[in-house]
Amino acid sequence: MKPRKTMGLLLTSAMLLFSVACSNTEKVPTNASKPEATKESTSATKAPAATPADKKITLGFSQVGAESGWRSANTKSVQDSAKEAGFDLKFSDAQQKQENQIKAIRTFIQQKVDVISFSPVVESGWDTVLKEAKDAGIPVILTDRAVDSKDTSLYQTFIGSDFVEEGRRAGKWLVDTYKGAKEPVNIVELQGTTGSAPANDRKSGFEEVIKSNANLKVIASQTGDFTRAKGKEVMQAFLKAHKDIDVLYAHNDDMALGAIQAIEAAGLKPGKDIIIISIDGVKDGFVAASEGKINFIVECNPLLGPQLMQAVRDVVASKQLPKRIVTKEGVFTSEDAKRELPNRQY
Fold first, then answer.
1. What is the pTM of this model?
2. How far apart are CA 129 and CA 111, in angstroms?
3. DSSP 27-58
4. In this model, does residue 50 exceed pLDDT 70?
């Protein structure tokens, strides 16, 4: 971002940016999972319009949907943090449809909000609309999920988890657990929404690590759309097709919880007959883990609201941000979950 100018120049710049048309169809930004935050220069990005100190900041936020307990906690964190910060939050629920998010972003541009933030439904297909936001002089902050464009000038920063590392952590626990295995260990995988950053990255990180043990074999992998109902449905199909499932790797807790219902309905004991690894760490997941039904949880922290509001303040103040802000998260065994359960906020 460009350095702060005098108040006179800021007001002049704001008037010029206010009149810029929203058009163009060039390509856009992204990178989903770099573990370290990088201090890249954002000088190629047009500086946001100045916001006078006495003007309430308007934030347009497009959410993926309400497909899971994690997502609901994430939404509440954003809404509560915006209220606490005194921002005017314009919130849109995309109901897991990319076209709804693109429409919402264009509405935010028309409304001339100060900052746009969104959690992309999928990684691809954002080039045109992000270029429109840039041309309008409205900075964009990505949260939770990234986009796969290469032009990083089209967003200020990406705040969220390292999904590849989450997959690696899940894989490492499995490798350590079965390091003495002499027979094949059959794994079924419940993937997240097809084409989404967490689904792509959690799969690749997991596969990267388990290939070190030739006995660990993924025998079936299918999307469960991050929902409990779909997780149950797909797990039922897995159980019918495969009689020798040893491990379930679920890309989120909600799918794991749906799968647990299917496993129990089949007369099996989740966590014993089938080892279960999940990602997220929502309260319902911790309850299942404390009961021994989920063996290992990799945390993905949804409470990004405070970090997002600080980033919005910094962008409006023309401060330079790192291109990647990685959230801090932990891992939990069943015993860990018992101790942590009373402290879960979501």
1. 0.80
2. 15
3. --------SS------TTSPPPPP--TTSPPE
4. no
